[in-house]
From TrEMBL:
It comes from the Eukaryota. This is Fe(2+) transport protein 1. It holds the Pfam family Zip. It comes from Escallonia herrerae. GO terms for molecular function: zinc ion transmembrane transporter activity.
């Protein structure tokens, strides 16, 4: 399963890199008002180097932090504090989709640099985001079904009893042992299904974040506007750390082995710096307001927004709030709601600067 994830994520990175190379090689650019004294390539370069290092470090801290919480009793996945922190991180991911990625896509696809027909005649951003959410639902549902069938392939159908069990059933006390065995088997089956669900959620969320992170890094690396790079670096560090915490919590609940955890941590940590480096390498031919750039990046942002919003609402928040732990405690629900609002509010505030 780790090799499959590695192949999928690698394919995504290769496709986005090819897309970016084609887009950034466009020479036509729409005429826009110049920003007074902000476009300075020599001053922007050290800021981008700082961005690569700082975002890499904060990404690693964010995604690795939940993975070491098993040694801290208060932050164990079974404890209430872990649920509250996870809800806070889910609020971050939700606000990222609604407040950062979706508005950027609207701005790009409604730009005056694009022709009226078809870009100003139809709301492509909302349409692509909707399709992305539906496709994510399909992938989520089908992956869960496939993994569940694979998991249950070696399990006996309920009611099928081995000869040894039949012998035990007719002895005194045998019925109790047989009944207890069925209860134990049902419990193991439920736990196995829940674990498979956690693994599918972690996989789909990682793929969505990888696409989103490369696009963000690409825009930052190709830009020479020092007025926007400075606040964007701070906002991205905040964003990557807490988004990483949300992903790290999903990886922890998926109970992967060390190698699988390392692969997922690696790809999350390097995707944004990779995007910055790619944009930096292609910055000579980059035309920020070229129609091809606006269309491609705008569509990628719309698809990322739909995926992130779906994952935050359905797989993270709804899954926790409708689960037995939160349903069994109104007090914990209220604390979790506050955590979601704080996470979403903090990330929404970042939209003022980035």
């Amino acid at each position: 399963m780790a090799s499959a994830k590695l192949e999928l994520i690698s394919i995504f990175l290769i496709l986005i890199s090819i897309f970016a190379t084609q887009v950034l090689s466009q020479t036509s650019e729409c005429e826009t008002e110049s920003s007074d004294g902000c476009n300075n390539k020599s001053k922007a370069l050290p800021l981008k180097i700082i961005a690569i290092v700082s975002i890499l470090i904060t990404s690693m801290i964010g995604v690795c932090l939940p993975l070491f919480t098993r040694s801290v009793p208060a932050l164990h996945p079974d404890r209430s504090l872990f649920v509250i922190v996870k809800c806070f991180a889910a609020g971050i991911i939700l606000a990222t989709g609604f407040m950062h990625v979706l508005p950027d896509s609207f701005d790009m696809l409604s730009s005056t640099c694009l022709s009226d027909n078809p870009w100003h005649k139809f709301p492509f951003t909302g349409f692509i985001a909707m399709l992305s959410a539906l496709v994510t639902l399909m992938v989520d549902s089908m992956a869960t079904s496939l993994y569940s069938k694979k998991h249950h392939a070696g399990i006996k159908p309920e009611g099928e009893v081995a000869p040894g069990d039949q012998e035990m059933a007719v002895t005194s006390g045998g019925f109790h042992g047989h009944h207890h065995g069925h209860q134990h088997g049902a419990k193991n089956e439920f736990e196995g299904s829940q674990l498979l669900r956690y693994r599918v959620v972690a996989m789909v969320l990682e793929l969505g974040i990888v696409v989103h992170s490369v696009v963000i890094g690409l825009s930052l690396g190709a830009s020479n506007n020092t007025c926007t790079i400075k606040p964007l670096v701070a906002a991205l560090c905040f964003h990557q750390m807490f988004e990483g915490m949300g992903l790290g919590g999903c990886i922890l609940q998926a109970e992967y082995k060390f190698f699988k955890k390392a692969v997922m941590v690696f790809f999350f940590s390097v995707t944004t710096p990779f995007g910055i480096a790619l944009g930096l390498a292609l910055s000579k031919t980059y035309k920020e307001n070229s129609p091809s750039s606006l269309i491609t990046v705008g569509l990628l942002n719309a698809s990322s927004a739909g995926l992130l919003i779906y994952m935050a609402l359905v797989d993270l928040l709804a899954s926790d709030f409708m689960g037995p732990k939160l349903q069994g405690s109104i007090k914990l629900q209220l604390k979790s709601y506050v955590a979601v609002l704080l996470g979403a509010g903090g990330m929404s505030l970042m939209a003022k600067w980035a």
